[in-house]
Amino acid sequence: MNPLKNLSVLRKLVQLASFLLLVYGSVWVGYYTADKLSNAFPVLTCAYDFQNADYCVLIPFQHQLDHRVGGVLAAGGEVARALLPTVISLLTFLALFVFLNKAFCGWVCPLGFFQEVVHMVGQKLGLQRSESLPARLVARLRPVKWLMLTLLVFLFPLLTGMGYLNHDLGSPYCSICPSRILTTLAVGDTRQLYVDSSSTTHLVLSLTADFLFGLMVAFALTVRQPFCRICPLLALHATFRKLGFARLVKHATPRCERCGLCAKACPMDIREIHTEMERHDVTFADCTLCGRCVEFCPEKDVLQLKYTVLPLFRADPAYFKGRKKAQTRWEKRSLLGLLRGRW
Question: For the sheet containing 310-314, what is the strand order?
Answer without folding.
Answer: 246-250, 303-307, 310-314
